[in-house]
Amino acid sequence: MIWLNQVSSVKRGWAVVIIIGFCSIPAVTPRLYASDEIQYFAYLRSLWFDQDLSFDNEYRYFHDRGIATAYGFEETFLELQTETGRRINFATIGPAILWMPFYAIADGTARAMRASGSSVAVDGYSRPYLTAIAFGSAFLGFLAVCLSISAARRLLGRGFVAGLAVWLGTPLLFYMYLAPGMAHACSAFAVALFLTVWLKVREDWSTGGLMGLGATAALMTMVREQDVFFVLGPAVDYIWSFVTVWSAGNRGRASELIRRLMFGTAMAVTCYLPQVAAYLTLNGRIGPSPYVEDKMAWLSPYAASVLLSTEHGLVAWTPLVIAALVGIGVLCVKSLPGTSFRELRRIGLCLFVMFAAQVYISGSVDSWTVAGAFGQRRFVGVTIILVIGLATLIRVTAKHWSSVTTFALLTICIWWNLGLMVQFGAGLMDRQRLELTRNAYNTFVVVPRAFPVLVYRYFFDRTSFYEEPDRYDDSRPSRP
């Protein structure tokens, strides 16, 4: 009977997640406007329609319509050239790969509409195409949440509350619904998929499992280059397994582990070839643009700032991270009933290594403030780590008076994130930095008062939040 109740509880949990995901569909914003979004989109549109990696026409489309008008866009993307004589693109090819199924559906839809007499353009830019990318990112972000919940349940027997809290209480929500043209929802999915495969593969490190891990590692790295640092967690885990086997004197098993690793590495290299081809085509070498490399300071001088600064510091913008990291710490030091402390401690340490690696690489970039972005967006990829950490904290406080405190803090953190999203979108805050007193007042006083009106505007007059909303009207002709 207890087992049946547990099954019923799991079904209810998934039902809630699916219902929230379905009901949130109208919140998706199908538009591109930032230079990063345009660069990611340019890969997809150019490959699909032009079968090349020449982005001049894609850049000019958005520039001529007055959409890509940010300072420096024309000088950077329409005047400068790469070593191979092409237009610069700092983005990676991974998001285009993940968006391609959605884009294919949009292309088929646009062609069918055109054949039936509609005036919709079959050019890769019209409403069906942009909508497909936006909904594709939202769907991938939703899958990231689902994979994260599944991983937490696999380890801890719970994860629904943690998954919903991270979904609503971190910038993932913003990059799923308000800026889906960015790569961050794709990153959350790719990293969640990689870690999910790792948690399964680590049970026996099979050849097929390591090949799958290599393939997902390649995909993850093609989505965002900094996500390659997530490989450090499974690498530490694998070395741990190898040293254990070697110390036990099992040389045959150790040799087999090396052989299997070679297969996994070969698969990773093979699956990464699309990005290699893109690098060679654009930059004439395997690697990102020299402009990207020039921004790197490899001693990570901004590591503390990227966590604590009010200029897009992770903790200041997303205090939910503190609770999740406490949970990871608990995973490393506390034995939980019905689990293997040794295994969970090892997994917890690997998760901590991955999070620390993201702090390191994000703190190594001169543009660590991600000026003008919502939150510390470079950490959206750690979604699954936050869910596991938060699920741990919720579990250890579940049958204790502190559970009330935990859920109260989660609620405050979620509202803080939602409040900042409202302020960011409605122009009620400085987008370059937090002013904690002012933002707190707005979040807990101003936003609740204005919430009904803002919600109405968002769903029924969304362009009222945009600057020059007519730029996004498909019927408006391009500027000469």
Question: What brief labels describe this structure?
Answer:
single chain; 480 residues; mainly alpha; 21 helices; 66% helix; disordered C terminus
Provide an overview of this structure.
The chain has helices at residues 2-23, 35-50, 56-64, 73-77, 94-115, 127-156, 160-169, 172-177, 184-201, 207-223, 232-247, 251-271, 273-283, 290-293, 303-308, 314-317, 320-333, 341-362, 383-396, 402-426, 436-460. It is mainly α and 480 residues long. The radius of gyration is 23 Å and the shape is globular. The N and C termini lie far apart (72 Å). Residues 468-480 have low confidence and may be disordered.
Helix and strand layout, with pairings?
Blueprint: H1 2-23, H2 35-50, H3 56-64, H4 73-77, H5 94-115, H6 127-156, H7 160-169, H8 172-177, H9 184-201, H10 207-223, H11 232-247, H12 251-271, H13 273-283, H14 290-293, H15 303-308, H16 314-317, H17 320-333, H18 341-362, H19 383-396, H20 402-426, H21 436-460
Short description:
The protein is mainly alpha-helical. The protein has 21 helices and no strands. It has one domain.
User: If you average the pLDDT, what whole number results?
Assistant: 92
Would you count the extended β strands for me? 0
Tally of discrete structural domains? 1
Low-confidence stretches: 468-480
How does the overall form come out from the CA principal axes?
globular
Secondary-structure-derived class: mainly alpha
* Beta-strand fraction estimate: under 5%
| End-to-end C-alpha gap | 72 Å
Radius of gyration: 23 Å
Q: Which series of helices and strands comes N to C?
A: HHHHHHHHHHHHHHHHHHHHH
Helix content: 55-70%
Please work out how many helical segments DSSP would assign: 21
Largest β-sheet summary: none
